[in-house]
Amino acid sequence: MKRFALAGNPNCGKTTLFNSLTGSTAYVGNWPGVTVDKKEGTYKKLEEPISIIDLPGIYSLSPYSPEEVISRNYILDEKPDCVINIVDGTNLERNLYLTTQLLEMDVPMILAINMADLIAKNNQSIDTNKLSKILDIPVVEISALKESNLEDLMKKAYETSKHPRKGKTILKGCKLDSLINKVNNEYLSEEISNPLFHAIKLIENDEIEIQLHKNILPLVTESKKDFNDEIFGSDFEAIIADERYKFLSKNIANIIVKNDGSNQDPNQLKTTLSDKIDKVLTNRIWGIPIFIAVLFVIFHLTFATNFLYLKNIFPLNEDGEIINVTLQGTPWEGLIVSADGVASPGVFLQTCLVGFTDWITDLTKTGLESIQGDQVWVSGLICDGILAGIFSVLSFLPQICLLFLFFAILEDTGYMARIAFILDRIFRRFGLSGRAFMPMIMGFGCSIPAMINTRTLADDNERTTTIRVIPFFACGAKLPVLTAVAGQIAIMCNINNPDLFTLACFLVGIVTALITVIIMKATVNRGAVPPFVMELPSYHLPQLKALGIHVWDKIKHFVKKAFTVILASNILIWFISHVNLSWNAFLPDEEISNSIAATIGKLLQPIFTPLGFGSNLAGEFGWIFVVATICGLIAKENVLSIFSALSAAIAGGTMDDYTTSQAMEMIVDATNITTYALFAFAIFNLLTIPCFAAVATAKAELPKNKFKGTILFWLVSSFFVGSMFYLIPTYWWTCFIYLAIIGSGIGGIIYYNKYQDKKNNTLKGTD
Fold it and tell me: Could you tell me which residues are beta bridge partners of residue 263?
């Protein structure tokens, strides 16, 4: 099968093109030996199927990041049949810088100018024939978003792949021409493939090239001796970069034309609508408040039980419940309108799924009762242990899908890139660049790819700091826990807006992340803030197909975990909840407080007393929250599974007649946990050690000497913040204790910084 590689700058529309070409055939893995996403798929509309490889988004082929090394090595070593170089037509000159480097490789190549629809909207066009003659490769205009002209692109790419191509450089005739030819001939004499590319990289003092071809380095060093540029001196990388841009400025100016026939300076090409929107959304004052408002709207659409606060327009009974409009006695009862109000889209979809899973549980229970005979434990294991646990997690799948969909829309429209730009001003004060926002925001989906994405960050200190705070951004696994707790807190506070409490948990995580970043950058991770360079894409409507692929890619891991890790955990949890320390008896539900799980929970309860769900929850079932927290370290979804599985004992029967919300309510009533303690429970589980898979990823990505400190950091942060939310509102005088601790910490940081500065100055003086 022929292999076509997609190469281009970040935000040029490469991923959209990949999704349009491959559709459902796409799959994601990792590049060999490197934890950076590798996307592959198949295009099937030519005479033979074509394998499409989506290379990481890069700005150049210099070894400044793992992505650049991966893209470079793949083209050089794997020798794809064709490289499709995607460029953003609205930023043509800047995007073509990478093109000038790709041209120097011995590989068939075609240029795809993306965003043709936006260019046409500006009453402009690109002279592709002229550009094709200048670069000596085929050029095709496309719109990956609108899926226009893609078949023509692939046909031309297929024809191009049939003819070998030797690398050419736009540097011909420049001040370094003779040096390039001399080094190129040396590579040719040694029969090294891609000689022109290697020659130019060696002249640039490229680190990888120096290691690969040390034998040619003396020739280059000798030839450089008498060369000294007026502006850049002996910085040959800067000299070559300058020559590339001079070529582009000179030759690309006449490529973009207005439809009236006049030329258009490519640097003046801009999307007027995007600029107008940016004046509002990236405003120094209103940018952050608007982002918070957008988050509120997303959470309201996803979690609100009183959608748009419409409850006030319906007639209420004396208990404040809606009457006569709940569709009583119909299959739709409670789906659209309930006593709490009008269901948001997320709550509506969740209610539909819960009805379906309840039907499956009832059907399974009926079937087991007819065949199990005296083996009651079989029904308990399958219905109360396995199905109740899995369905309690899956019941939040519609809301998770909806949340991922909204975040995907924000990302595909270009808004998320703007948020990174806005937050760079804030992050820089805390010791991070805006680039760190992208892995952090990925943490809302899953901590694992978010931690992997930190490889794009500039240095080890920034990478370590970001990995440590990523779990503070509530992932999809923590979302069901936060939602269930928020719903119960709303009931306890007599407020019909659990979405506000869910949003509050998210904001607590974000604020905690920022504060701990300040602390780390002032102590263990001191260092200069790396520069932040990011190209803002033009705003555009998201592609439905791409959104579907994005959401499915996120939720399939959630579903897979539910039927693997969560399934195994539920069986184990049910077993230790129905067996005592003698290992010889299956306990009935009413004796569950004598189980192994209860024994472990009671043993560890004192540790969690400052958080409100420890020894102060005396009583038969006070240990449940501790067991849920411990099991959540395996996978956060286990927290809800514990509640669903163990609430059967509280109900005095089985759980097939109860929803997750009702199970939570029964546990809260049985344990007498307070509102503050319940919120502290949610905060602790949000901030503490993430699931085992995320911990393993952190260990792989962190420097070896940082892992143990990271585990301690998660434990201390979650315990300190969680205890604050319980102790201060419960015992107001404890605020003075926390103020003293915080004051001592600030004083210690100031002293530490002065000591380090004095030490560094002493060392500099010694040098």
Answer: 257
As given in the structure block, the two tokens for residue 113 are 């100018």
What does the alpha-carbon distance between residue 648 and residue 660 come to, in Å, rounded to a whole number?
Answer: 11
The 10 Å Cβ neighbour count of residue 165 is 17
b/e 2-12 (16+ beta carbons within 10 angstroms → b) = bbbbbbbbbbb
C-alpha distances in Å from residue 719, one per residue of 135, 344, 412, 699, 733: 60, 34, 37, 22, 19
CB 567 within 8 A of CB 386: yes
Distances (CA, A) of 225 to 177, 181, 222, 236, 247: 16, 17, 6, 12, 26
Query: How distant, in Å, are the alpha carbons of 13, 116, 167 from that of 9?
Result: 9, 17, 21
Q: Answer for the pair 100, 134: CB distance below 8 angstroms, yes or no.
A: no
* Cβ-Cβ contacts under 8 Å for 89 (sequence gap 6 or more): 113, 114, 115, 116, 118, 119, 126, 141
Could you tell me the sign of the dihedral formed by the alpha carbons of 596, 598, 603, 607, in that order?
positive
Cα–Cα distance for residue pair 650/656, rounded to 1 Å = 13
pLDDT-derived band at 758 (thresholds 50, 70, 90) equals confident
Identify the DSSP state of 55: P
Q: How far apart are CA 733 and CA 415, in angstroms?
A: 44
Residue 153 has pLDDT above 90, yes or no: yes
Spatial neighbors of 306 by CB under 8 A, at least 6 apart, are 340, 341, 342, 496, 497
pLDDT category, 529, cuts 50, 70, 90?
low
Which residues is 714 bridged to in the sheet?
Answer: none
DSSP per residue, 640-693: HHHHHHHHHHHHTS-STT--HHHHHHHHHHHHT--HHHHHHHHHHHHHS---HH
C-alpha 27/C-alpha 41 separation (Å) is 6
Write out the DSSP string of 230-269: TTTBT-HHHHHHHHHHHHHHHHHTTTEEETTS-B--GGG-
d(CA 639, CA 636): 6
Averaged confidence pLDDT in the chain:
80
DSSP string, 306-364: SGGGGGGGS-B-TTS-B-S-S-TTSTTTTTSEETTEEPPHHHHHHHHHHHHHHHHHHHH
d(CA 679, CA 474): 15
Tell the residue number behind the tokens 């692109």, with chain if given: 153
**What's the pTM?**
0.64
Interatomic CA distance for residues 620 and 421, integer angstroms: 52
Top-confidence residue, 446 or 608: 608
The whole-angstrom separation of Cα 398 and Cα 335 is 14
Q: What is the pLDDT of residues 190-243, one digit of tens each?
A: 888 999 999 999 998 888 888 888 888 888 888 887 777 666 677 888 889 888
Q: Which residues contact 76 (CB under 8 A, 6 or more apart)?
A: 105, 193, 194, 197
Give the pair of three-digit tokens for residue 292: 């918070």
Quote the CA–CA distance of 506 and 475 in Å, as a whole number.
10
Cα 507 from Cα 292, distance rounded (Å): 9
Q: How many helices (H) and strands (E) does the chain have?
A: 33, 11
* 417/410 Cα distance (integer angstroms): 9
Mean pLDDT over residues 118-137, rounded? 87
Residues 6+ apart with CB under 8 A from 504: none
